[in-house]
Specification:
Elements (H helix, E strand, L loop, with lengths): L9 E5 L14 H14 L4 E5 L4 H10 L7 E4 L4 E4 L4 E2 L1 H7 L5 H8 L6 E2 L10 E4 L2 H17 L4 E6 L3 E6 L4 H14 L6 E6 L14 E4 L5 H10 L6 E3 L4 H11 L24 H16 L9 H5 E8 L5 E3 H10 L10 E13 L2 E12 L2 E13 L7 E10 L14
Parallel strand pairs: 1-2, 1-10, 2-3, 10-11, 11-12, 13-18
Antiparallel strand pairs: 3-4, 4-5, 6-7, 7-9, 8-9, 13-14, 15-16, 16-17, 17-18
Helix pairs in contact: 1-8, 1-9
Magnesium ion (MG) binds next to loops.
EC number: 3.1.3.24
Subunit structure: Homodimer.
InterPro entries: HAD-like_sf, HAD-SF_hydro_IIB, HAD_sf, NTF2-like_dom_sf, SPP-like_dom, SPP_C, Sucrose_Phosphatase, Sucrose_phosphatase_pln/cyn
């Protein structure tokens, strides 16, 4: 929450399954496009919030399966758990607040009387969330009777139906919308209200997000009927909400452009940076761009005669490989030259996460970021620091001076020599 000194330029609050993550996109291209854009242009002054129905357990599983960035804030279990930062520090005040008029035992007693309700797995039952599966045709009736019964027993609950299968029972004050309203209030008290907030979703439990005052909203093209219906009944005339024509993360990028919330061209959509007319002089963009080039180099998506690596590296620079071995940068360039196309036709991908830039001299920047690579079942990551210098003679303006990498816990390959940088 305190990563930024001032107000966030943009705060994105996005659902994960079928919003940020497209489970039908095997190559995760939509997500990788979003990631490159976020790290190049937004990470420095904006906030990324994931708001998911998943419990922390299966949220962490998704993070291992998909190239997800690290959010600043994670809201899990349909707005009943809020956690901050990479170390995911719980907001205990929020959980205290949800205890009001909530009694989990009564909820389980009452729901047990409904044979139409099939309990979800143990991981998805949380202190302030009791979850079931129920068939679509039975859902409306069950919801009506169940809420009457719970009300009679003195509970203030909220019943949410999502994905045409899942029914969540939560305290009245919980839910994705309430959790967001709570966060916004906290920002306001700190004098750090985000300049713009964009909420993104696809299903029933996201509907509340679109009801939070003064936010922009995007329902991705693949949004579920229940969300579209909620919108038709409650927010049809709100010009700040769109139904994107693009799926999932691509729909989020589309909304950023539609509402003019900032840059909306992913570096991944720029085929040739040398021909790119837009003047981008930004150290974070430089990092994203280099690794994109490197991925394309190994996938043979750029021609072998491109000389970029020689140009951007300082000839006398050093590189500390994550194994601890120090090498001259020139050696790495030679190796890289030989690796052109070695991953051609494969699923080899690279992305960077949590890129930060600190100016340490009049023309020097210290960059810090997590660099990830996936190839088949393998996934490896390094904490990377790079010293960037600026030089007028170099076309894109930056020279990579020194670089240092260390393995992220448990992510080193068996054979460390397979990792270049
Ligand atoms: C996620 C959760 C599940 C919940 C559903 C809808 O799939 O794992 O427990 O019911 O979202 O909110
Ligand atoms: Mg979803």
């Amino acid at each position: 929450m305190d990563r930024l000194d001032g107000s966030a330029h943009l705060m994105i609050v996005s659902d994960l399954d079928f919003t940020m993550v497209d489970h039908l996109d095997q190559d995760n291209l939509g997500l990788l496009r979003f990631n490159a854009m976020w790290e190049a242009y937004y990470r420095q002054d904006s906030l990324l919030v994931f708001s998911t129905g998943r419990s922390p357990t299966i949220y962490k599983e998704l993070r291992k399966e998909k190239p997800l960035l690290t959010p600043d804030i994670s809201i899990m279990s349909v707005g009943t758990e809020i956690m901050y930062g990479e170390s995911m520090i719980r907001d205990e005040d929020w959980e205290q607040y949800l205890n009001q008029n909530w009694n989990r035992e009564i909820v389980t007693e009452e729901t047990a009387l409904f044979p139409e309700l099939t309990p979800q797995s143990e991981t998805e039952q949380r202190p302030h969330k009791v979850s079931f599966f129920v068939e679509k045709i039975k859902a409306l009736k069950v919801i009506r009777f169940l809420s009457e019964r719970l009300e009679k027993r003195g509970l203030d609950v909220k019943l949410i139906y999502s994905n045409e299968t899942a029914l969540d029972v939560l305290p009245k004050g919980a839910g994705k919308g309430q959790a967001l309203a709570y966060l916004l209030e906290k920002f306001k008290v700190d004098g750090k209200m985000p300049v713009n907030t964009l909420v993104c979703g696809d299903s029933g439990n996201d509907a509340e997000l679109f009801g939070v005052p003064e936010v922009y909203g995007v329902m991705v093209s693949n949004a579920q009927e229940e969300l579209l219906q909620w919108h038709a009944e409650n927010a049809k005339n709100n010009p700040n909400i769109i139904h994107a024509t693009e799926r999932c993360a691509a729909g989020i990028i589309q909304a950023i452009g539609n509402f003019s919330l900032g840059p909306n061209v992913s570096p991944r959509d720029i085929g040739d940076f040398q021909k790119c007319k837009v003047e981008i002089y930004n150290s974070c963009h430089e990092v994203v761009k280099f690794y994109l080039f490197y991925e394309r180099w190994r996938r043979a998506e750029v021609a072998k005669n491109m000389q970029t690596p020689n140009l951007i590296f300082f000839p006398l620079g050093t590189f500390v490989h994550p194994s601890g071995v120090e090498q001259p940068v020139s050696h790495c360039i030679d190796v890289m030259a030989r690796l052109h196309g070695d991953k051609q036709g494969t699923d080899y991908r690279i992305w960077v996460d949590r890129v930060s830039s600190e100016q340490v001299g009049s023309d020097t920047w210290r960059m810090k970021f997590y660099k990830w690579e996936t190839f088949g079942e393998e996934r490896h990551g390094c904490l990377t620091t790079v010293l960037l210098g600026s030089k007028a003679k170099v076309p894109d303006g930056f020279t990579w001076m020194h670089m240092h990498q260390t393995w992220l816990e448990g992510s080193e390959p068996k054979d460390q020599t397979t990792w270049l940088f």
